[in-house]
């Protein structure tokens, strides 16, 4: 027991020791340390060898990715946070609102606001299947096999989704189409995503600006 | 640590953290502090038709609805989505649920809805997937989906049982006279 603890301690120390850290950082430093001028040196003169700007950039991106993937695992849904892109659920959800989804095995019942995907539907080449957020208005669950048939309708639409042609040929939704249920709501926060959706140049400009800020930051 | 960018950065970070905390607390008041006492009753006024469709039986029914939902409104409630739903069991499906009427209430003052002989809305059909609707008992459920200004959504309902479909097919003598109500949506057809 004592020996195992000591071994663990030693391993932990070797992981955080400065030798290993600088070794790993060299790997992110494009191979040769000091061969490329560091952006930081231009601003504050050659200081002590601290984390490279590229490492901090990598850390920002990977920590955001870790946070997102953890959220995907916790909620069981492939996209746990969605931005409302259509007006079909007004006056409840407007364009630019944020919805939090949760996918559980609990079967869908009428009144639930579900998010579903229709991968079979005919699309223009290059167009992605966007998830649709509508409310379930009819549910039929079979005795044998438990197969479930769902009909949905957007609150602001006059017709349900089957009559309105949204299903693309199938008469009912099945459990495999459902990506989750709406459990939370945040108004207006998704306006930025809307602007980036409608004007892709804004998206590229924003990413470039973000990269520039991280590269030139002092920490 | 004193450049304008650092100051702006800390201001925005702190501000958005506080805003997030306030949103979470606001939503929590709906579940921890708010007490609601809705008084609801619904019953079928008249079952207008029960008939065979291409894939199963269908029915039209008008209901008497009296729902006092004003106590459900809290300071964090944006709107209530009220629906009346019929649920029944058939040999093929042990659960069938069909919404027959919906309404959106955005104002606490208009939250006491009383309708007598509420006609069905044309967006919704009470249909089954087999031909076993005649003589089947059904429940009527009034459910309201509380959509908040910010935070978690939740749904409550009250069910009433003891109703039964007639044991024979019938349609109103002059179908054109059956009045249907417009559903609350405004977009003709359906958009994604």
TrEMBL record, chain A:
The keyword Transmembrane applies. GO terms for cellular component: signal peptidase complex. SUPFAM superfamilies: LexA/Signal peptidase (SSF51306). One of its GO terms (biological process) is signal peptide processing. InterPro entries: LexA/Signal_pep-like_sf, Peptidase_S24_S26A/B/C, Peptidase_S26, Peptidase_S26B. Catalytic component of the signal peptidase complex (SPC) which catalyzes the cleavage of N-terminal signal sequences from nascent proteins as they are translocated into the lumen of the endoplasmic reticulum. Specifically cleaves N-terminal signal peptides that contain a hydrophobic alpha-helix (h-region) shorter than 18-20 amino acids. It comes from the Eukaryota. The keyword Transmembrane helix applies. It is an enzyme of class 3 (hydrolase). It is a single-pass type II membrane protein. It comes from Apatococcus lobatus. Gene3D superfamilies: Umud Fragment, subunit A. One of its GO terms (molecular function) is serine-type endopeptidase activity. Its EC number is 3.4.21.89. Residues 69-120 form the Peptidase S24/S26A/S26B/S26C domain. This is Signal peptidase complex catalytic subunit SEC11.
Automatic annotation (TrEMBL), chain B:
Its main location: endoplasmic reticulum. One of its GO terms (biological process) is protein targeting to ER. It is a single-pass type II membrane protein. The keyword Nuclease does not apply. The chain crosses the membrane at residues 12-33. Keywords: Endoplasmic reticulum, Membrane, Signal-anchor, Transmembrane, Transmembrane helix. It is found in: Endoplasmic reticulum membrane. InterPro entries: SPC3 (IPR007653). GO terms for cellular component: signal peptidase complex. The keyword Membrane applies. Belongs to the SPCS3 family. Essential component of the signal peptidase complex (SPC) which catalyzes the cleavage of N-terminal signal sequences from nascent proteins as they are translocated into the lumen of the endoplasmic reticulum. Essential for the SPC catalytic activity, possibly by stabilizing and positioning the active center of the complex close to the lumenal surface. PANTHER family: MICROSOMAL SIGNAL PEPTIDASE 23 KD SUBUNIT SPC22/23 (PTHR12804), SIGNAL PEPTIDASE COMPLEX SUBUNIT 3 (PTHR12804:SF0). This is Signal peptidase complex subunit 3.
